[in-house]
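Task card 7
Instruction: Convert sequence to structure tokens.
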Amino acid sequence: FVMVVTRAVNSVTLRKPKEPKKVEEVVEEKDEDDDDDDDDDDKEEEEEEPVEEEEEEEEIIELTGKELKQRVILLEKVITYFVMDYTRRGLLDADKLTVVSMMAIKMLVRAGTVTNEERSTLINAPPDPNPPAMPENAKSWLTETQWAQMKNLESLDAFKKGGKLTETIEQDSLGWKRWYVEEKAEIADLPRGVRDLGPFHRLFLLRVMRPDRIGAALTEFITSNLGIEYIEQDPFDMEKCYGESSALTPFFFVLFPGVDPTPTIEALGRKLDITEANGKLVNISMGQGQETVALNALNKSATNGGWIMLQNIHLMQAWLKQ
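Output:
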């Protein structure tokens, strides 16, 4: 985590890169008559202790109050993206929207825009334990559970402005049903009693009544609040991942049937002169009898350096503990 944050901060550093020092060598022409004197001078120079270079003082960058505030906002934005981009590499596609949504809502809670009660209600959508009887005009398209969940939403401040939700459903059943059956309910006009709801509180209605459209709504919500880069991810870049890694933490590839990262790893290895031909890359398909081969390769690479690729590692869980 510290490495990720460090890279994020360095990407927007205000310090200018240090220029290499120029060393000038001055050669003086000497007369032959002065050779003896020069020899004595050379001996004295040899006896002189080398002068230590003075350490350069670290550059101090002064910012005004306004500039400092803008700088903090920029750092917060950049660090958030770097951390999220690093994290989602290890997530399945099905889980990425969930994780980024939870992060975005947590940020809104910290900013005071969203309360913990709202966050919990959106995630869990708890039903009211004692809801009133459902009106007859809603029974044909609304379930008892949804009715109880809608009743529970009435406790949130955002849903108190246009009257009680359950009452508006009973009074405008046709308008609610029209919205309920929309193909893309997340962008359709809301019923009269809740038209003033913002994008965040619209999610509550979708969570209860149209959970099939909550994914599309969250995608739009994240794009509007954080940016499209939190939704669209660049293709996997092995070279970039390698640059962000260290020898202390191995790469762990979770693969689907038919996917093989070996060509990608070998292509990067060739750029870095790490190949099977020169012995710096070892590719072992793990199975019975390969434990000793793998251990020997690990010990050798730990001493001399190199890469080891252990395939089908999920078959060797007991061996991994060694």
